[in-house]
Amino acid sequence: MKQTIKYCFLCFLLSRLIVLGVAYATFYSFDTPPAPPGYAETQGPLDRKPLNVLFFYDSVHYLTIVNEGYGLFQTAWFPLYPLLIRLTGGTAASAVAVSNIMFFLGLLAVFKLGGRKAVLLTSVSPIGIVFSAAYSESLFFLHLFMVFCFFEGAEISICRYIGRAGGDVQVTGLGVDRCFGVIYF
């Protein structure tokens, strides 16, 4: 188990350095960094703070939910990720920390299902920036692979509870519980 954690952590760390290195190089190659729609209206002008490369699009809404609660334009975002952000401090840095911790835990679940190669390929995926950004994708990633792990172990009752919790992460999580129920029964 210790070797598994060490390998997953190494893949996590190296992949985050690569992905974030490319993201920062891209971010700093513009004279004026590109700001996502709605960012300037809610957060002010985008500056070159290091964390801003991981804080874009939906991140603005998640932090608004954490700090002000649900408003008229935040009803499309599910509550589990903002709750975890609030429990860990309610800042952009805590949102990024939650995402990275969930991604690492998800890599452990991937290892259980697919081994070393699966962890390596998952961690260096080109879309990997969303697993480090202040997005709910890493939480959904963890949730989905936990469902797969418990399903493989034929622990269907636990699988269904985790599947139901996915509905608190993203809209696609609402269907996970139903899909596994249909497959098993």
From TrEMBL:
Q: Which key words are in the record?
A: Endoplasmic reticulum, Glycosyltransferase, GPI-anchor biosynthesis, Membrane, Transferase, Transmembrane, Transmembrane helix
UniProt pathway annotation: Glycolipid biosynthesis; glycosylphosphatidylinositol-anchor biosynthesis
A single GO cellular-component term on record: membrane
Q: Where does this one sit in the cell?
A: Endoplasmic reticulum membrane
Keyword presence, Transferase: yes
Q: Which residues cross the membrane?
A: 83-111
For this protein, the record's InterPro entries field holds: PIG-V/Gpi18
Question: What superkingdom does the record give?
Answer: Bacteria
One biological process term in Gene Ontology:
GPI anchor biosynthetic process
The entry lists its GO molecular-function terms as: alpha-1,6-mannosyltransferase activity; GPI mannosyltransferase activity
Query: Where the protein is mainly located, per its record?
Result: endoplasmic reticulum
- Membrane topology term: Multi-pass membrane protein
Give the protein name, as stated in the record: Glycosyltransferase RgtA/B/C/D-like domain-containing protein
